[in-house]
Amino acid sequence: MKEFTFHYGRGTKTFSLDESKIIKEIRMPETPVMENVQQGVLDAIYHPIGTEPIDKIIKPGQTVTFICNDPTRVANSFDFMPVLVNEMNRLGIPDENMKIVFSLGTHRLMTHEEMVEGVGEDVASRLKMFNSDAKVAEDFEYFGATSRFTPVLINKHICHSDHVILTGTIVHHYFSGYGGGRKAVLPGCAAMETVRHNHSFMLDPASGIGKMDGNPVYDDQMEGVALWADAMKKRGCSVFLFNAILDAEHRFLRMFAGDYIAAHKEACKFVDEVYGVKIPQQADVVIASCGGYPKDINVYQMQKTMDNAVLACRKGGVVVLLAECEEGSGSAVLEETCRRLGSVDAIEKEIRNRFVIGANKAYAVTRLFKKAHFILVTALDRQMAKDMLFDGAVDSVEAALAAAEAYVGNDYSVVLMPTGSLTVPLVEG
Question: To which H or E segment does residue 152 belong?
Answer without folding.
Answer: strand 151-155
